[in-house]
Amino acid sequence: MEREKINMRPEILAPVGNREALEAAIAAGCDAVYFGLPVFGARAYAKNFSLEETEEIIKKCHLLNIKVYITMNTVIFEDEMEEAYVLAKRLHEMDVDALIIQDLGLLHLLHHRLPDLVLHASTQLSVSKPNMIEKLKQLGVQRVVLARECTMDEIRACVETGMEIEVFIHGAICICYSGQCYFSSVRYDRSGNRGMCAQPCRMPYTLYQDNALVGKELYYLSPKDLSLIDQVKELEEMGVVSLKIEGRMKSAAYVYESVMQTKSVLDNKFRSKQDIEDLMVTFNRGYTKGHAYKMSGYDLMNPQSCNHQGINIGKVIGKKNGRLVLQLKHELNQNDGIRIGKDFGCHVNYLYDKKGKLTSHIPAGSVCEIKGPKQAKVGDTILKTTSVLVNEKVEKRIKETNRQIQLNASIVCDGVGSPLICKIYDQNIKVEVISKDVASQAQNRALDEVTIKKQFNKTKDSFASFASIKSKSSMLMPVFARTFLVEATGPTPMIEGSTPPNAPAIHVAIGVTPNSLAFSSLITTTQAAPSLIPEELAAVTIPSFLKAGRNLEILSAVVPGRGPSSVSTTTVFFLSLTSTGTISSLNLPASIAAVAFCCELAENSSNSSLVKCHCSATFSAVIPIWY
């Protein structure tokens, strides 16, 4: 049966061999990182992290929703198996997201002893066929890192098994099948399957046939570097879940550029010529699309060189006063690193224009002079192998990038005397915090939604920002849905309209906040019809400013809807304030407003009445009232 396609972007998995590379991967936008420890990792000579550092990295990455995979991808000897188990158990307790394993015995042991530990089958297992994946399923493997020798058809077939598939998309490849090379072990007694490969395939060899020389000394066994960055959309459509970048011993600039450019292509952005050159100058042996696209011969191999090629920027055209004269087809900057010919390199500490004047920059198409190795010859090619501008760009972006996860917040308060309840959550986790203090009556300006959002969005230097902030509180928003015009004119308090006979007598007082936008607290009493009073209005107190000895009158009336005493009517309640003095003597703002609100007791009923309240003071306002 055809595997159902997963409608999600594949993760970008970045190599991190040191702290600088880790920060570069995070800043560039990786989804996961992988690295090894001092033991049981296939890069024994990398600057591997300690257990203490690993625990701190896991916590840091998990705060940013970045997964952490640890490589334990060497062959394990029998007398090491228990030690490997203890290490895996410790990593499991640290909440590592997965271990990348080569040894089948260790896979079997961990699956049975630590069934909740996520296991990934290493590329060192040379998996390229669906039947191999079926065997790994029985060992509890949840993801397979395919051999770099797989074709696109083989990748597709492996995806169809339903297993999570991870594919290398950039970095070094080997001359031999992953995990099956014993060249280093036989020639130098350093096994690649024990993390100690001496890379004999990167060394020069002379070719003989029947003891007769048929080929001069070249790097016959040295492949180019794989680069499928421009093909990652095809892998995404195929259903590959993880795009892996090789390079745990590479620079922070290499990690940043490879991750950032992979992310750009996944986001349907075009890689410019400058982007490609910026990545090439960090490290490349020439690029190939590799076995995935059935490359062979010079499309796969680079017999001319085994090391970093950088970018070609020009050639030596002469010597003058102890300096090399260069014709440039690419810019050159002070402190760039260059290789001259095949054997000589230097940093450009001193850079001169064609007139012999010191400068820090020479544009493409110009002639310049540098102090370089005396062995250099006229005609030698100039390769830029490090770029000061790229390094400075990456350092600047790492420094300025504060990667944050997107969270949602819900803030709830039930009013005066109630705590503030804050819920912060995303798709996977929800955290609830209840304040020890309770809300009190606002003395000046009541807390509103605008203020809450402003304060919660002050997360510039933290690990998170808020995609949405919702607030709900009787401190923040009124209860019912109507808008009424309330006026105060004339000397005599009175109500327009008549109170029908037998209407229930309901008295309601509503406190007014200084900004006239929200309720502060409520008081309700009833003589005849308690069912008419919403539960939200029960058992609360009169606002403090209404109890301050002021000469206030609370008046009441019922304005009928479709019947004088029917429960199906729409009933309007209101508060009238009167004073013998001025408004300022009440210690209330000049924009004080009387408040009216509507309680709908019948479905589909409506009332657009304007309730006019005539008081001894003169004031007016329009008060919005919401559900």
The largest pleated sheet is described as: 8 strands, parallel, barrel
Q: How would you state the average pLDDT, rounded?
A: 77
Helical fraction: 10-25%
| Rg computed from alpha carbons, rounded to a whole number of angstroms | 37 Å
Shape: globular
Give a concise summary.
19% of the residues lie in helices and 28% in strands. The chain is of the alpha/beta class and 627 residues long. Strand 13 and strand 14 form a beta hairpin.
Description:
The protein is of the alpha/beta class and 627 residues long. 19% of the residues lie in helices and 28% in strands. The chain is built from twelve helices and 34 strands. The strands form nine sheets. The chain has an eight-stranded parallel beta barrel with strand order 1-2-3-4-5-6-7-11, surrounded by seven helices. Strands 17-16-22-13-14-21-18-19 form an eight-stranded antiparallel beta sheet. Strand 8 (205-209) and strand 9 form a beta hairpin. Helix 1 (19-28) crosses helix 11 (388-400) and helix 3 (81-93) crosses helix 4 (104-113). The longest helix has 15 residues, at 252-266. It is globular, with a radius of gyration of 37 Å. Mean pLDDT is 77; it is low at 1-6 and 474-627.
